[in-house]
Amino acid sequence: MEEALIRDDRAEVRRVAALCRSYVAGPGATAVDRELLWLAVARALAAGAAGPDELPAAERALSELGDRPDLPEAEILRRALGLRLATRSGGGGRLSADEVEHLCHGLPNLPQALLFRAECWYHFARHASGPAEGAWQTCLDLSGGCLTKGGLRPWERGTALLLRAVARLMLALEPDCPPAETAATTANDSWLAGLRLVAQSVRTPRYRTPTPDLPRLPDEDISVLCPGDAALVRIAVAHAAGRPARETEFVTLSGWGREQFFAISLLRARQAGLLGHDPEASDGYNLLFQEARAGGPDFLLDVEAGERPK
Fold it and tell me: Which of these three, 115, 148, 172, is where a domain ends?
């Protein structure tokens, strides 16, 4: 199962997880077998989760262990699953700073605990109702610390890279690696390349990428990213290909303003232009200009000047 996770072969992960579930339900499984395999199944399903049924399936597998304070990784995983499920529920997953501290309280000194802290601050920042630069910086520092200290499994390292990339994007920093140089051998790699592409595209007028170099995003999202960030990546990839994004992606971001993403007006203006709605595009670039002058990143002024319809 770990080999399938390293390859990010989701179909194989599901197949092996199903075999493990069948085995532990049978008479030949020992107590140790059940303990180890239920944790492995929960970990695998959580790491590869994308569809709406997979996170609950991981949570159900973990519940088979019961309350196990002697298995600290199980408690970290339990909290992470709850966090990801909450952001996909009707409640939206908003956290207060006190709730973040409560979630992180009492965790053992493990690399996975540091990664969970980074994910908590990601969710806090993503669902904040106002500016959240401090939370994004904390997410960046913690995810970067995970990568520096090591001790993570390959798929956990992939999660840390995604969290670092989205934090850099929201802080208007340059991508840590050019999108075209990201080796996209797995679905996780494709999402990482997509986040780096967003960061590059919002600072480059009329950004385009040859089709062979575009990230090949899977149809399914990835559970570590909130739905809005997945939509953001899909929009930027479509625009980099010179085509409008699906309107459903913009519906996902309908409640977003500058506080959620400093370049959201640029994406909306680009979408209008690609659809041939020039008056709407012009209005969008006017708004972008006003926002950039009011404190947005300086590079947005160059992008606005280079793209505004003549």
Answer: 172
| pLDDT tens-digit series, residues 19-68 | 888 888 888 888 888 888 888 888 888 886 666 677 888 888 888 888 77
In a domain, 196, yes or no: no
Residue-by-residue DSSP string for 46-86: HHH--STTHHHHHHHHHHTT-S-TT-HHHHHHHHHHHHHHH
Between the CA of residue 81 and those of 55, 93, 194, 267, what are the distances in Å? 7, 12, 24, 31
Instruction: Say yes or no: 165 and 101 in one domain.
Output: yes
Q: Is residue 129 part of a domain?
A: yes
Q: Judging by beta carbons within 10 Å of its beta carbon (0-12, 13-18, 19+), is residue 153 exposed, middle or buried?
A: middle
Tally of structural domains, the chain: 2
CA-CA distance, 278 to 173, in Å (whole number)?
30
- Rounded (5°) CA angle 250-252-255: 90
Q: What is the domain range of residue 154?
A: 91-172
Residue in 92, 102, 115 with CA at minimum distance from that of residue 224:
115
pLDDT tens, position by position, 55-105: 888 888 888 888 777 788 888 998 988 888 888 776 566 888 899 999 998
Report the range of poorest mean pLDDT among 49-58, 103-112, 176-185, 242-251: 176-185
